[in-house]
C-alpha cells in the first residue's frame, strides 16, 4: 500500500515536469537589457528619495525596491555561473566571473563613496534629522545592493557574444 502510494506520488511529480528540469543542466542566458532596466529604475528612485521634501518618499523607495528585486534575479538566470556550482566551470568562466565582479565592486566602491559624500553634504545643507538621514541611507543601501546584482550580469552579458543556434548545438 505504501509503495503504491509513493509510486503514484512519483508519477504525479513527473507529470509536472519539475524533476526533468531539476535533472537537466541550467541554460545560461545573456541578460543584456534586464540589468539596464534595473539600473534605469534605481537611479531615478534614488534621486526621488534624496530630493523628496516629504520624509517618506514612497515613490522613490518603491522604484528602488522594484529595481532591487529585478537585480536579485539577474545572477540566477544570467551568464555567470555561481561559485560552488555543479556545472562545468572552466578557465574562461572563472576569468569572466572575476572580471565581472571586479567591475561590479569598483562600481559599488565609487558609488558608495559618492553617496557617502552626497548624503553628508545634503544632510548638512538640508538640515535633516537623524531619522531622515537613516531613511536616505537605507535607500543608498538598496541602491548598492542593486548594483551588486545588476552590474556583474550586465558586464558579463555585454562582454560575450551570443552563439548562433548552429554553434550552440555543436
Describe this structure in words.
Keywords: Membrane, Transmembrane, Transmembrane helix. It comes from Sphingomonas pokkalii. The chain is an all-alpha fold and 170 residues long. It has one domain (26-80, 90-164). Helices cover 76% and strands 0% of the residues. It has helices spanning 2-16, 18-23, 34-51, 58-77, 91-126, 130-159, 165-169. Helix 3 (34-51) packs antiparallel against helix 6, helix 4 (58-77) runs parallel beside helix 6 and helix 5 (91-126) runs antiparallel to helix 6. The chain is extended, with a radius of gyration of 22 Å. The termini are far apart. The mean pLDDT is 84.
In short:
This protein has 170 residues and is mostly helical.
Keywords:
170 residues; mainly alpha; 7 helices; 76% helix; 0% strand; membrane; transmembrane helix
Overall average pLDDT: 84
Termini separation (Å)? 47 Å
The total strand number stands at: 0
Strand content: under 5%
Protein topology:
Blueprint: H1 2-16, H2 18-23, H3 34-51, H4 58-77, H5 91-126, H6 130-159, H7 165-169
Helix pairs in contact: 3-4, 3-6, 4-6, 5-6
Transmembrane segments: 30-51, 58-80, 100-125, 137-158
Protein name: Transmembrane protein
Keywords: Membrane, Transmembrane, Transmembrane helix
Amino acid at each position: 500500500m505504501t509503495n503504491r502510494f509513493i509510486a503514484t506520488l512519483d508519477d504525479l511529480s513527473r507529470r509536472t515536469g519539475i524533476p526533468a528540469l531539476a535533472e537537466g543542466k541550467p541554460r545560461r542566458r545573456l541578460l543584456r537589457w534586464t540589468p539596464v532596466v534595473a539600473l534605469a529604475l534605481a537611479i531615478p528612485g534614488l534621486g526621488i528619495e534624496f530630493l523628496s521634501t516629504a520624509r517618506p518618499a514612497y515613490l522613490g523607495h518603491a522604484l528602488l525596491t522594484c529595481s532591487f528585486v529585478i537585480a536579485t534575479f539577474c545572477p540566477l538566470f544570467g551568464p555567470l555561473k555561481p561559485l560552488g556550482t555543479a556545472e562545468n566551470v572552466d578557465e574562461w568562466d572563472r576569468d569572466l566571473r572575476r572580471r565581472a565582479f571586479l567591475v561590479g565592486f569598483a562600481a559599488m566602491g565609487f558609488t558608495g563613496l559618492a553617496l557617502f559624500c552626497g548624503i553628508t553634504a545634503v544632510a548638512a545643507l538640508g538640515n535633516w534629522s537623524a531619522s531622515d538621514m537613516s531613511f536616505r541611507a537605507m535607500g543608498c543601501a538598496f541602491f548598492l545592493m542593486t548594483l551588486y546584482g545588476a552590474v556583474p550580469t550586465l558586464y558579463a552579458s555585454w562582454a560575450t557574444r551570443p552563439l548562433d543556434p548552429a554553434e550552440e548545438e555543436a
